[in-house]
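Appendix C reproduces, verbatim, an entry submitted by the partner laboratory led by Prof. M.T., so that reviewers can inspect both the input and the predicted structure.
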Amino acid sequence: MRTRTSALIAGAAGLLLLLAGCAPEAPHPAGSSGSAGGASDDTLTIATTTDVVNFNPLIGNSRSDYWITNLMYPHLLSIGNDGKKKAELATKWGYTDTTHGYYDIRDDMTWSDGQPLTAEDVAYTMNAVKQDAPAGTYYGQMAHFASAKAVSKKRVEVTLTQPDTSVIDEIGFWGNVVPEHVFQPAGSVAKFANDGSSGGWVSAGPYVLTSKQVGQSYTLERVQHYPLAPGGTPGPAKVVYRVFPDVNTEILALQSGEVDLIANALPPAQVKQLQNAQGITVQEVTGLGYAHMTYNMDNPDLAKLEVRQALAHAVDYDAIRKVVLQGQAVSTGSSPLMPVLKDYYDPSIKEYSFDTKLARSLMEKAGYTADADGNFPVRFRLIYSLQDTVTASWVQLVKDDAAKAGIVIDLAWSERNTYLAQTNAGDFDIYAGNFAIMDDPVTNFTLAYLPKGSINYTHNDDPTLNDLIEQASTQTDTAKKISIMRKAAKLVHDQVYDNVMYTQNLYFAHSSAWTGFVPEPSELLSIVNPISVSSAHKR
């Protein structure tokens, strides 16, 4: 992903000073999370709109994959509402020099089959992901990862191929830990289905999956020892994820008492309605992501800067935020550095103006001539997920406004898992969707804009941008890193490598009969993160 050699020795002292000022929070002690409701015989029923695609957390990318496997396979780190990492399985973490890092882990975590969770599991997971290269976010963080070694039952030491000031935090946050004694005999972690067919699942989270009915439900049962839950035991005896065709059906099920919680964020139009509904609680969760469109530069028309600029200027962003988002979203200035990232956000980067005349002028500058109907001789296929009701609403506005500029857009929806497969395969001209957590600017840019980035959906390869990201990854001086990343964000904006439309806080609905949820930022974590689910209890 990046390379840099000079000035590293001089930067080592700066790195150590940086680390000294960034001590992690203390780990959650047993019983410290949420309200102390205690273990019960209750079942928490959660609604989702998608089935699980991968039960192997090292390759999963569907929301339902993440929600369910997170209840079984712990992360070293969690995240706060400010985007800063917090202790989870790890109690301490950081760097010892520019190319070596470490994690100290809890000594009271156990797999559900009775085996202790140790540093060996952590090191095995990291090394296996690096070796087998499973598709997904975890592997995407590991370009500078060389190896991990368990030097004791509680300590893992990590060696990097070159300095990278983000990798310890990002691997710790994005990577689940899996049991070596289960995954290693199965061979490649990139090919292991982990579908329960060889005797069920083994968990070190608050719950273990016990049954699945594709298209219907996924049932998880409480483990008896989970030290991050109040009192050391998860509250609900069972957690059942039920699959519904769409969010409207989910809302009806919540109102009727058929489910207790909706995992996916509420459409903005439904927020006020449910806030006033008897027996329903709506909880606000900090957003660390953004909605965006990317233009596939493998298409020779979209490889032209003027065409991407024309498309960017043919969008009424303000109308989308006011009409579709009901005023619950804000502009990022068409920048991937969001306002929530206060240190990095650059207010001098301005949002693309909505100007269909300018869009037409740019298309003509790109060499196109409109026909008698005012349309240019190009058309673009825009993909989106039908389950994403907010995006499904605003893409229609995008289509209609682009038509005013003479640009024809064909909308192509599909169910979420097909949409994800199309996205990963580059089977689109325009991609419309959301990134749920964009927490670390350098890592985000590495994944989204470098040539081999796992979410580089524009498929761009800009040497200048590559070099800026490379410089930032090894920069230990925070002020200099911020300056570099702002330059990178300006380049992304000016070249339209990403069209960031808005960022928003999210709203989630649950039955008022339940309380004790512990929100974490983003739709992926929200109130269905492991700490939250295991802390929930009936009033």
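The longest helix spans residues 478-495. Additional entries are available on request from the coordinating office.
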